[in-house]
């Protein structure tokens, strides 16, 4: 097989890049090791920054988003038995939209297939060769056969555990990472949300987040120890802990319902530099991961490939190499801004050290300042809704 850009991974980054290339008249093939059903049902992030929403609009992918997405103009911070709203749109003129990552993926797959795009599911990329030549090769297996995809460039959008990052020779990449001493227990529940906007709660027993996916579905999270087993958290215990950490405002209670899914996710920060080597360009979770407190993961992936789409368009359309050459430097400015914001939100809201009164007082002071200082609240808001340029 032959194409111009070979893309490994059919998550939001890989699919959006393929869509952007199509709009520029550039051929691509997307290889995905999982089935279409799996990637369309995989529940991940659900908050789109203003820039991500704008990208979906200008690329013709916003029809269902407009019907089903839930625009939020603020978030709520709960601590010390109080509730405070951060009015993001009032402070910045921008907003977020709650629309699940799997819904973005469904829309992208439908658009690519409707346009005759090549998205090969259950095609397991096993090796990348010739990245330092003008004709790289992606070796993959599909239907029990070994196949090859020859291309001009490779975009590695295959996540943290994919093969793309590992194809870079030793000594080229530098890794920066931090592992947090807690995890998130996430719950998807068939319960109408009792909130209109996301609620972030700082509690002596640990952090909690009340989010939503639709008028009928709630998404909730609890801070737990990283070595917790999901079997230790029956539904009754989950709801009891959510009530304890969230029902701290007089007269307010959450809505309960059947638990549809639950999982435990460790928290970490991870960045690899540079994000490119020769004819390989890395994007999304393949090259950076943030704790989800700041809702930046999917948005960073989309921002990466928006840059990469423009860079490939300049290469093929104008024979310009500068945007491709500067891709990593440009993308990393946004990546590190998002890393800092995600770390800051995580540090402010979670119990980082058990029984550390100094840490607890610092968090309380930070939260109090965030809801009393217009300047500090604006900084939080503009980072949360997404900076237009970094």
UniProtKB/TrEMBL annotation:
Signal peptide: none annotated. Pfam families: FAD_binding_3 (PF01494). GO terms for molecular function: FAD binding; oxidoreductase activity, acting on paired donors, with incorporation or reduction of molecular oxygen, NAD(P)H as one donor, and incorporation of one atom of oxygen. Coiled coil: none annotated. Gene3D superfamilies: D-Amino Acid Oxidase, subunit A, domain 2 (3.30.9.10), FAD/NAD(P)-binding domain (3.50.50.60). Residues 2-341 form the FAD-binding domain. The keyword Iron does not apply. It comes from the Bacteria. Keywords: FAD, Flavoprotein, Monooxygenase, Oxidoreductase. This is 4-hydroxybenzoate 3-monooxygenase.
